[in-house]
């Protein structure tokens, strides 16, 4: 790796107080991570199809249909309700 990582600058930006030992240890970890990323960047991925998920993801939607509830038990836990609706404090 050619670039030197400024651990103290990273610590200051992160508002961390690191000892010299912690700085050295963190610097070693970050250099290992960056070296691994450099190895991954050298891989030939020209024949690999881009993906956002490993497994296929499908959205399952249902129609949003309004219906009246005959059971008002859901309001029993509310601190305040009015005519079958939750009543909350005005914000604006």
From TrEMBL:
SUPFAM superfamilies: Glu-tRNAGln amidotransferase C subunit (SSF141000). Gene3D superfamilies: Glu-tRNAGln amidotransferase C subunit, N-terminal domain. Pfam families: GatC (PF02686). One of its GO terms (biological process) is regulation of translational fidelity. Coiled coil: none annotated. InterPro entries: Asp/Glu-ADT_sf_sub_c, GatC. NCBIfam families: gatC. This is Aspartyl/glutamyl-tRNA(Asn/Gln) amidotransferase subunit C.
């Amino acid at each position: 790796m050619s670039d030197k990582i400024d651990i103290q600058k990273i610590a200051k930006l992160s508002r961390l107080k690191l000892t010299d030992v912690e700085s050295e240890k963190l610097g070693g970890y970050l250099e290992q991570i960056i070296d691994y990323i450099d190895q991954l960047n050298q891989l030939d991925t020209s024949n690999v199809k881009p993906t956002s998920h490993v497994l296929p993801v499908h959205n399952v939607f249902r129609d949003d249909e309004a219906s009246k509830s005959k059971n008002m038990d859901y309001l029993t836990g509310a601190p305040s309700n009015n005519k079958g609706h939750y009543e909350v404090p005005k914000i604006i």
